[in-house]
Amino acid sequence: MIKVGVLGAAGRVGSAVAAGVNKADDLELVAEVSAGDSLQVLLDKDVDVIVDFTTPAAVMGNLDFCINNGIHCVVGTTGFDDERYQQVRDWCAANEGVGVLVAPNFAISAVLTMAFARQAAPYFESAEVVEYHHPNKLDAPSGTAVKTAQGIADARREAGLGEMPDATEQALDGSRGANVDGVHVHAVRMQGMVAHEEIVFGTTEQSLTIRQDSYGRESFVPGVLTGVREVASHPGLTIGLDKYLGL
Amino acid sequence: MIKVGVLGAAGRVGSAVAAGVNKADDLELVAEVSAGDSLQVLLDKDVDVIVDFTTPAAVMGNLDFCINNGIHCVVGTTGFDDERYQQVRDWCAANEGVGVLVAPNFAISAVLTMAFARQAAPYFESAEVVEYHHPNKLDAPSGTAVKTAQGIADARREAGLGEMPDATEQALDGSRGANVDGVHVHAVRMQGMVAHEEIVFGTTEQSLTIRQDSYGRESFVPGVLTGVREVASHPGLTIGLDKYLGL
Amino acid sequence: MIKVGVLGAAGRVGSAVAAGVNKADDLELVAEVSAGDSLQVLLDKDVDVIVDFTTPAAVMGNLDFCINNGIHCVVGTTGFDDERYQQVRDWCAANEGVGVLVAPNFAISAVLTMAFARQAAPYFESAEVVEYHHPNKLDAPSGTAVKTAQGIADARREAGLGEMPDATEQALDGSRGANVDGVHVHAVRMQGMVAHEEIVFGTTEQSLTIRQDSYGRESFVPGVLTGVREVASHPGLTIGLDKYLGL
Amino acid sequence: MIKVGVLGAAGRVGSAVAAGVNKADDLELVAEVSAGDSLQVLLDKDVDVIVDFTTPAAVMGNLDFCINNGIHCVVGTTGFDDERYQQVRDWCAANEGVGVLVAPNFAISAVLTMAFARQAAPYFESAEVVEYHHPNKLDAPSGTAVKTAQGIADARREAGLGEMPDATEQALDGSRGANVDGVHVHAVRMQGMVAHEEIVFGTTEQSLTIRQDSYGRESFVPGVLTGVREVASHPGLTIGLDKYLGL
User: Fold this and answer.
1) In chain B, what residues touch D132 (CB-CB under 8 Å)?
2) pLDDT tens digits, one per residue of B101-116
3) Which of A31, A204, C75, C91 has its CA 20 to 30 A from that of B221?
4) C204: closest chain D residue by CA
5) Is the ipTM of this complex over 0.90?
6) What is the residue-wise DSSP string for D77-133?
7) Are residues A132 and A205 in the same domain?
8) Per the structure, how many domains does chain C have?
């Protein structure tokens, strides 16, 4: 039984994580910490792993305390840069065996989609990305879609692939999507939808489609729980949940 | 048993139509006519319906002969304009009971897709079109996708719908597709694919997707046979296969 | 501006309808009635249309009052049988011009899917239904999928189509799905999904797919609002939202 | 430039492979061998790699000759059992550096789909397989779908996952598909389709779909060419193309 503490437990994300921990048979929720609470409870309750969905202002103090007290950390808080990563590495170096996972995206279906896209890319002449989101989204395409396209572009370059075949001569402006590093990306905005990404690959008489659908705002929970279960076996700093998925 | 004559029987399309007629239990192929052949065979063989996939130069002569001899006509040949349509109407007026179907697209799944898109459009805040074609296609988006988008735009206008919701503020150029009459259209070019069109509609917590896939170059055959079977019950000129489908 | 009263306003469905009415520019929510409340408020507030999501025990009393006071009715309450329908028809006969819509399903994408499936069925040799639901669902396949399959079967019969082609000789038990009136129906149960239905039609070198996705529990709202807007133009009893959709 | 010989060059598959080699810039087709031809030409032409799509009766003789003459082999011929594999291993042991690839499936999108399905399986509570084929297929589900389901079942077992959630109490016979090692598999038979497989995974508020579409009968060609390019870097016997794809 892994003893879990949630930092930022009063937030929307933190409370969903706490509920997820409560439902899991192999995890025990022993501490919920909100802004202003003392971290001493983590030691009193003998916490094995903390989950941090707090703020860029709070997260480094939390990690300082936890790592130096031998507590593993799973972190979804944003605002990390190279300097912060180096600081975390230094703390880990001084506390052998402590694992820290920092990940920008815990939606396991999205993380797998991105990883599979990189793996598939070398074997297909063509690859394009179509993403679908609710119409209140401010940016197009989504950050995830741009990253996916860049991953495909990298994998193609490493494999020595050239440009994709495209005989288009006459095109309505915008019809062929945005060109991200040679990979075309299309963004659909659709009332009623949440967040969906589809990557299509094509070669001789066949195509491969990898599609990820998020139907709600708690799709990050299974990925966080995977992080909690695996972090002790990955000492030091790990960036990105994909490193835990054996990909 | 309907007796069928095929004009342009030596062409790729005509020969596929002839093969389709041969396979159908309720149709009998009694005449195959190629460029230069006399049309007299149509009378000798007592043809009920001709199918014309010839050339813009030949088609009007064929129709003149057939209509004025009481033979129904199913026409996929291109090059019709208002003047030609009027001429056909005049010939029909002089030959009561003769039916003529001229259609730009006989792929029945594509025709239904377009019709359903118009029917669905008034009930959804959002609608976008994504089409997929082989990478040798010269234009983007496809003519069918543009027409589908225009049909959706018309249906929205008639229903009094305004602009679709879209909060996009930051967009990579082209990511939101081509704007066809207010409907966004995205064109994917993919090795291995043939011709595919997907229309997505969205409203509160739901979406409706209508998708058409063509896997080969004979997808027009079932639509032509439907035309052959129905043309006698639609006297006069009909433009578009959808008029025969009870839509 | 249509003045709307909601009966069953305290229920989950009723309150979602009330919220939907409030958001619509052309509708005004003037009365919310819960179990035990007097219906007099509907007259005091000059209600044009009521929406009834109450109980089988309450609904007939509500309709008696409303129809006989000249108020149009949109009804999602269950428990109607031929006897009840006849009673409603009698009340309508005595109150010319009053419209009543009783519908088992207001999810507009599901209603359109079923209607399009019937329209498409005569033109394809093959048709199968695949539905996807959350794993807590007790029945398989869903009632909607069974009804869709029956609609397809009816349309095929009317068009004189025979059995679908299927050369299967060796099959694992269950692999070909349930046989509903000759139409194969497959039920997938999937954690994270809500309610989704896909109908696939196939003929020579092409397929047509109609897919409906419900992402949440408020997908009935747009259909109810369509009912409210249209009911005054459909005097007498109408059963099924599809009759209002011009299909 | 890799010098390639094709054995079984007169067959449908062999001739498609030959055409594919001819189109590739980095491969040179130097020998085409049909039943009855001498293999001496492979030595005369200094062949680097042979591709064998012949018959179970012919393949072992071909491999004996090629391996013992230092020629790498890519083999799609069927009929291998443990005894044959051991014989190939023995020949390879005696000819260090010679690579032999024997694969039951060269459709690269199908091979990737199966590999991704195994990788994804541990992270989702639910997984089901839906396959679509033309209606002339004799078995249901397809061998590929059964294998995919078994791979998912194995991966779930290794990860310690139990049964999938499924509350179904009332089911029409067959509606939940075939149960392959605990994974439900559904087979659709559809006029116009070729060979398509879809695997759906679900967990909290999200799903992942991996779909493979074969549009024609030459979808094996890119996988064979990948085999030809890689076989020299994989000495000894390799079974299954997936081992070459870095998965």
Assistant:
1) none
2) 999 999 999 999 999 9
3) A204
4) D192
5) yes
6) -----HHHHHHHHHHHHTSTT-EEEE-S---HHHHHHHHHHHHHGGG-SEEEEEEEE
7) yes
8) 2
